[in-house]
Amino acid sequence: MSLNIQQSIKNARKIVVKIGSNTLAKEDGTQNTEFMANFAAQCASLINQGKQIILVSSGAQVAGVSTVNGWARKKDVHYRQALCSIGQVELMHQWRKAFQNQNLHIGQLLLTKDDFENEHRSLNIRNTLFTLVDEGVVPIINENDSVSFDEIKIGDNDNLSALTAILWSADTLVLFSDIDGIYTDNPKTNSNAKLIEKVDSVEDLRKNIVIGETNSFGTGGIETKLQAAQKVTEYGIEMILANGSRQNALTALLECDSRGTLFSVKN
User: What angle, rounded to 10 degrees, do the helices at 157-168 and 222-233 form?
Assistant: First the structure.
């Protein structure tokens, strides 16, 4: 792994971590509660080292399917939003149990695009985040999928995590996905695709890679990750894209024991 990634985590005090739906889901599409318990332990390890963590967690729909399996194939938007409503409760229940085992409390924020674009609301979000973190509580953020519609929808948690990182003035944003980082092409279909360990310019990167489609459970894809990188690096925040399914994915970044792509900040 690039030492640049290790250095980014080592130097960061304020870290936003986004976990995608594919990372939170088992092969059958249900919640991976074992992963959640292990991930909470990793967060606790970093917090004990003096770091502050905000978690942006996908997975409301995955958790909804785990809870009400009969709705899994319903495509009607009202059912999907209702499924997220059910799933969000289950998602937070499992995160609460996972962090409770580490003697940590969690707080929930469900947000929409409007919340970031309204100056009064965004200030309230910022103040709430600072208060929670200063008191040793781990904020867990997700989009408010049960009420969101096109006009107020961010649409993916890559961009949501970027907006959160900017609002909180984070040092580093970590996006965990089901791939090791940015490749020259889709590594799942092209065995010759090469991992790009460091990106200095998102604009230049776009010219040299093939951007595929979204994955099975998530709403994002490589494009939304590039959008997130462009957002945060413009504010002096580094971003790391890595594989969340790797063993101890978060602490491995600090221990130089994992691969990934670092989007660096221009000096």
Answer: 10
Q: Are strands 14-19 and 52-57 parallel, antiparallel or unpaired?
A: parallel
Q: What DSSP assignment string belongs to 12-80?
A: -SEEEEEE-HHHHB-TTSSB-HHHHHHHHHHHHHHHHTT-EEEEEE--HHHHHHHH-GGGTT---HHHH
153, 142 Cβ separation under 8 angstroms: no
Backbone angles phi, psi at 27, to 5 degrees: -60, -30
> What are the tokens at 33?
């509660």
The helix or strand, by DSSP H or E, that contains position 250, with its residue range, turns out to be helix 249-254
pLDDT of residue 184: 86
Distance (Å, rounded) from C-alpha 134 to C-alpha 137?
Answer: 7
Q: Which neighbouring-strand residues pair with 243?
A: 177
> Quick one: tokens of 4?
């640049």
Q: Is residue 87 within 8 Å of 61, Cβ to Cβ?
A: yes
Residues 60, 103: Cα–Cα separation, whole Å: 24
Q: Quick check: 244 and 179 in contact, CB under 8 A?
A: no
44 Cβ contact list (under 8 Å, min separation 6): 99, 102, 103, 104
Enter the pTM of the model: 0.89
Q: How confident is the model at residue 60 (pLDDT cuts 50, 70, 90)?
A: confident
Max mean pLDDT among 25-39, 44-58, 212-226 falls in 44-58
Structure tokens at 95: 């995160």
Token reading at 258 = 């994992």
